[in-house]
From TrEMBL:
Gene name as annotated: DNASE1L1
Active-site residues from the entry: 77, 132
SMART domains listed in its UniProt record: DNaseIc
PANTHER family with a match to the protein in the record: DEOXYRIBONUCLEASE, DEOXYRIBONUCLEASE-1-LIKE 1
UniProt keyword Glycoprotein, yes or no: yes
The protein's name in its UniProt record: Deoxyribonuclease
């Protein structure tokens, strides 16, 4: 997710309820990617927006969602971006058709590409390409994601592209011997912001960098706050036990901060503190189903 402000948090004297944790995470940021959203009746996203409206009265939130994706009719997911209307707007969207000759149906869940404009950021406009790979097909899907990147660059004539999501890019799903066959890894113009030694899993028994953020090109890379890309340890932040945290998600969200072009507030022109001079991007994996079914 992308955010200019980090002031949202637990109110003084308020006892945090476990069901409030997803809202706390989402309202930290200006753009938030939700994955594994299963909402066949189309009711969950309006309920989520109503919940965010009650939880955060300072900002108004909107969503943009992919179609339902998946090879099985009984199990389908959506990519959903939640964003603050005051700081970000959607300028275009594109559902990748996954019909490349010679490699038709490369993805279990085809990327949903969204172009955003945020006038206060250093780059102003950027494209986000989410992907939730199938663990058994991680190497092939990550390599095919490179074709999606090139297609989007040519289609929209932009270099400001970020790829993000639960890539399953670690532990047993992405073998070292296969990395040389993944163009998303071998192309030196692509910068992987979440390193291989990161842990994006909640369980203390695992240390795996499944969730990643990848930036295309130096221009976009320079617009990112150095060392800001990292997993967000929400159990530690909100004082949760491992068991409580697993009721929310078995993955940590990953986040990154984008620089803004000045130190004036986005709304009203008033000064802002150094802690609010960035835009934050979160990726929430494995949490969306719990969020949406609990509403």
């Amino acid at each position: 997710a992308l955010s200019f402000s980090r002031e949202t948090g637990v109110r003084s004297g308020h006892t945090l309820q476990l069901q409030e944790v997803p809202e706390l995470i989402i309202t930290r940021c200006d753009v938030c990617l939700l994955q594994e959203v299963r909402d066949s009746r189309g009711k969950a996203l309006p309920l989520l927006l109503d919940s965010l409206k009650r939880f955060d009265t300072k900002y108004k939130y909107e969503t943009v969602a992919s179609e339902r994706l998946g090879r099985s009719e009984t199990y389908q997911e959506q990519y959903v971006f939640v964003y603050r209307k005051e700081t970000v707007r959607v300028t275009d969207q594109y559902q990748y058709p996954d019909n490349k000759p010679g490699d038709v149906d490369a993805f279990s869940r085809e990327p949903f590409v969204v172009r955003f404009r945020a006038d206060r950021t250093a780059i102003k406009e950027f494209v986000l390409i989410p992907q939730h790979t199938t663990p058994s097909n991680t190497t092939k899907e990550l390599d095919a994601l490179y074709d999606v990147l090139q297609h989007v660059r040519n289609m929209w004539k932009t270099e400001n592209v970020m790829l993000l999501g639960d890539f399953n890019a670690g532990c047993g799903y992405l073998a070292k011997k296969n990395r040389k066959n993944v163009r998303l890894i071998t192309d030196t113009n692509l910068i992987w912001l979440i390193p291989d030694d990161a842990d994006t899993t909640v369980r203390s028994t695992t240390t795996c960098p499944y969730d990643r953020i990848v930036v295309n090109g130096e221009t976009f890379h320079r617009a990112i706050v150095p060392a800001s890309a990292k997993p967000f340890n929400f159990p530690e932040e909100y004082g949760l036990t491992e068991g409580q945290a697993l009721d929310v998600s078995d993955h940590y969200p990953v986040e990154v901060l984008l620089k803004v072009k000045d130190s004036r507030a986005f709304l009203g022109g008033s000064s802002i503190t150094s802690g609010n001079q960035f835009m934050t991007l979160f990726v929430l994996s494995h949490v969306a189903f719990q969020i949406l079914t609990s509403l």
